[in-house]
Every structure is written in structure tokens, then in C-alpha cells.
Amino acid sequence: MSEGGMFRILIALAGLMGAAGVVLAAASSHQADPTRLAAASSMLLFHALAVLAAVLLAERLMVHPGIGLAAAFGFVAAGALFAGDLTLRQYAGHGLFPMAAPTGGTLLIVSWLMLAAAAIFPRSVP
């Protein structure tokens, strides 16, 4: 798949993350204890913007495109793990799998470090 196709997929995923973040924020306002849903909402909303930023930076060749796109996909996967685990715990009483939220959080950290590396090691423009 071309970089342009991956950019569009990531932009669509960021849109879905943003929408889910807003839904969870609204749902948290109707809960007796909104802590889990509010945290899930925040992670999705913040990282939806991070995905868009990583795509823009990669498209403009301000960061290494391959590493930048890997970081963006990491943000998507990690946000889904983290928010999915917290949301499932809120509504079903159990998580996705043991250590899903910490795994998602760790992947978020790794993805931010990958974005930093993409800036330090940009691909040479011919």
C-alpha cells in the first residue's frame, strides 16, 4: 500500500478515535464514578490528535515517514488497548486481558519515542 493510502487510513482511524473519545466523555458524565471512562476518553482524544500530527509530519517529510507512520499506528493500537480495557472494565466488570491497559500505556510511550526518533533520523530528501 502506498504512503498516501496509509495516511488516509490513519486519518480515518484518528477520526474514529476522536469520535469514540467524545462518546466516552459524554458517557462518563452519566456515571456515578466517571474515572475509567474519563481516562479512556482523554487517551483517545489526545492520541487522535497525535495520529494526525504524525501523519502530517511524515507527509511533509519533517520526520522519517516510515518511523512516523509506525508511531501513528502505535498510537491507534495503544489507544484501543488502553481505552478498550478501561471501557470494558466499566461496563462488563472485566478487562480485555490481563495487563491490557498497562500494555497500551507502554505502547503509547514507545510510540512517542518512535516519533522522536523519526524527527532525529529523517529520511534524506533527494
Describe the protein in words.
By secondary structure, the protein is an all-alpha fold. It has one domain. Helices cover 79% and strands 0% of the residues. The chain has four helices and no strands. The radius of gyration is 16 Å and the shape is elongated.
Summarize the structure.
This protein is an all-alpha fold and 126 residues long. Helices cover 79% and strands 0% of the residues.
Instruction: List the domain count as a whole number.
Output: 1
How is the biggest beta sheet arranged? none
How much strand?
A: under 5%
Low-confidence stretches: none
Task: Name its key features.
126 residues, single chain, elongated, mainly alpha
Summarize the helices and strands and which ones pair or pack:
Elements: H1 3-28, H2 35-59, H3 65-92, H4 100-120
Helix pairs in contact: 1-2, 1-3, 2-3, 3-4
